[in-house]
Design brief:
- It is a single chain.
- This protein is an alpha/beta fold.
- The protein folds into 2 domains: 304 residues, L-arginine/glycine Amidinotransferase, Chain A (5-stranded Propeller); 55 residues, no CATH class.
- 31% of the residues lie in helices and 22% in strands.
- Helix 12 links the parallel strand 17 and strand 18.
- The protein is globular.
- It starts with 13 loop residues before the first strand and ends with a strand.
- The mean pLDDT is 92.
């Protein structure tokens, strides 16, 4: 195992991963704020935590080190001046218009222990917690809303805020206001927690970039190729900025851009397509048809070169990975209703922890059986509550270190 950040594939033996144990932020969800906070349902916290703990335990049973968002952020904020800067930036990102409220919030968070402060930032600060009168019209208009700072219920999908690619990391500008502050935690982890990101770790994409990009759209197909979904939440300008930086400063030779439908059902590339073995992939049946693909490489002068192609996913993968054949395993198989049902519960969002070994939700039994018949070792976790957030095991994990293939 190489130390630090090391991720040159989707399937190499997983050694270290970043998770967030689902917490009190979920209790802030009500039907009135579903749209605001990007949820369709309310997980039952007690059971969701039990399911998430089983996920973490399963990873540990397979010799994978599990780090948690709260713990790693606490390490990053040990220094008081760094902590003050973090609190100011968090309040800035929370759209607080009243100076009186800003000052009260900063004071309130500064008085807590570091761990309590990080947990409070995640779970949200209610107006009832602060005895302060706002002098802002915006706050007056929103006076019926219970929070000064929204909870972060999406944080347990740790794939999106950033991605480890090669020996570096992308720290993302999220496409929605509801999720932008999640990345602030990761930014400070990267900058100030040397256990998490040792000195010399590359930063391929920055939190302060002007263009949105999210980690569910990033797949490290090989030591030479990174695939990115041009999706509802990842922009073409963001992809180009990332591609130019990583191609100029790493051993990667090519970025493949998959143009996928811009809708919630195809939110990220990894909701419709994941790698489970050297030549096997789980897919949403709807992406089997001709795909528009763009290729970014560098010419001898170091300038970006762009080309495009249109072909089936099978032919694209064979050509790009130099394989004689590939096996595309359909979510739900050939049963249309099973495909729809299991895709809704992220049947094709698998987390490979070694070549041919994956973690899936046990509820997707049709897809799991197909994977088993294809020779894939399937490790399942319960998911009656976790799945309500519309993300699977890959979405819930940020691999930091894998063995090279």
């Amino acid at each position: 195992m190489k130390p630090g950040i090391n991720n040159y594939s989707e399937i190499g033996k997983l050694n270290k991963v970043l998770l967030h144990r689902i917490g009190g932020e979920i209790e802030g969800l009500v039907p009135d704020n579903f749209e605001r906070l990007l949820f369709d349902d309310i997980p039952y916290l007690k059971v969701a935590q039990q399911e998430h703990d089983r996920f973490a335990d399963l990873l540990r049973e397979n010799d994978i080190e599990v780090g948690y968002y709260v713990d790693e952020t606490v390490k990053a904020l040990k220094d008081k001046s760094v902590r003050r800067e973090f609190i100011r930036k968090f309040v800035d990102e929370s759209n607080i218009y009243s100076q009186a409220v800003r000052e009260a919030l900063e004071e309130y968070l500064s008085q807590m222990t570091v761990k309590d402060m990080v947990e409070k930032v995640i779970s949200g600060v209610k107006k009832s917690e602060l005895n302060v009168k706002s002098n802002s019209l915006a706050d007056y208009i929103a006076s019926g809303y219970p929070y000064y700072t929204d909870p972060m219920p999406n944080l347990y999908f740790t794939r999106d805020q950033g991605a480890c690619v090669g020996d570096g990391m992308t720290v993302h500008h999220m496409s929605t206001a509801a999720r932008r502050r999640e990345v602030l935690l990761l930014q400070y982890m990267f900058k100030y927690n040397k256990d998490f990101a040792p000195d010399g770790s590359n930063l391929w994409y920055d939190y302060d970039s002007a263009y949105s990009m999210e980690g569910g759209d990033i797949l490290v197909l090989s030591k030479d190729i990174v695939a990115i979904g041009l999706s509802q939440r990842t922009t073409v300008a963001g992809i180009e900025e990332f591609a130019k930086k990583i191609l100029k400063n790493s051993t990667f030779k090519k970025i493949l851009v998959f143009d996928i439908p811009k809708c919630r059902a195809f939110m990220h590339l990894d909701t419709v397509f994941t790698m489970v073995d050297y030549d096997k992939f789980t897919i949403h049946p709807e992406i089997e048809g001709p795909l528009q693909l763009f290729e970014i490489t560098l010419d001898k002068e170091g300038s970006a070169h762009f080309s495009s192609m249109q072909d089936s996913l099978e032919n694209i993968l064979k050509a790009e990975l130099g394989l004689p054949s590939v096996d595309l395993i359909r979510c739900g198989g050939n049963d249309v209703q099973a495909a729809q049902r299991e895709q809704w519960n992220d049947g094709s969002n698998t987390l490979a922890i070694a070549p041919g070994t994956v973690v899936t939700y046990e509820r997707n039994y049709v897809t799991n059986d197909l994977l088993d018949k294809k020779g894939i070792k399937v490790l399942t976790i319960p998911s009656s509550e976790l799945s309500r957030g519309r993300g699977g095991p890959r979405c819930m994990s940020c691999p930091i270190n894998r063995d090279d293939l």
